[in-house]
Write a structure and sequence with these properties.
Structural class: alpha+beta
Strand content: 35-45%
Radius of gyration: 15 Å
Mean pLDDT: 96
Number of strands: 7
Number of domains: 1
Bound molecules: coenzyme A
Order of helices and strands: EHEEEHEHEE
């Protein structure tokens, strides 16, 4: 694997790259326009982005809190040609560490059915059905205790 660093995007350029990759992986394949990848909680969330030594974005993920003890991780997306090489795990571990530091005792995710195996490997267990995105992407709620 190329040398990968996890950063918190902060400059306009980094944030642009961050949202572009989120859109490219999670929205563009379903014909959704740029901008559709954002939501109001982005303003008060922790964002992380994995980059290579040339500072190119490889993967992204976000943490916000539903309560003082429950974190939620959303918008996990790794560039297609870098999937299955440990980058998603690196991002998830970074967000879990941050959640723990901020006081979370559990983390929930609303996992696409195609990503359930990824979260299971990291200790998340299904807790119930999740939402249906664009009338075609089924999700499953999953939870991990970290306290
Ligand atoms: C899901 C995703 C974030 C995982 O990131 P990744 O970098 O590909 O995953 P990793 O390489 O860190 O994989 C970690 C482990 O999970 C497994 N895994 C990864 N993706 C998986 C999947 N879709 N189904 C089953 N297992 C998976 C890997 O085999 C790996 O196991 P190993 O450590 O024994 O080799 C990434 O594949 C992705 O962006 N997918 C498309 C968008 C998406 O579905 N995002 C999640 C929305 S809820």
């Amino acid at each position: 694997m190329t040398r990968v660093t996890v950063i918190e995007p902060s400059s306009p350029g980094e944030l642009g790259e961050y949202y572009r990759l989120r859109w490219k992986i999670l929205r563009a394949p379903w014909g959704q326009p740029p901008g559709s990848e954002r939501d109001p909680l982005d303003e008060c969330s922790t964002h992380v982005m994995a980059v290579n030594s040339a500072h190119e974005p490889l993967g992204v993920g976000r943490l916000h809190f539903n309560s003082i003890s429950e974190g939620q991780i959303r918008y996990m997306a790794v560039a297609t040609n870098h999937q299955r090489s440990g980058i998603g795990t690196l991002i998830l571990e970074t967000l879990e560490t941050r959640a723990r530091l901020l006081g979370a005792t559990s983390i929930v995710v609303d996992a696409r059915e195609t990503a359930i195996g990824f979260y299971r490997k990291r200790g998340y267990l299904p807790t119930g059905p999740g939402h249906m995105l664009f009338r075609q992407i089924a999700h499953v709620q999953m939870c991990k205790r970290i306290g």
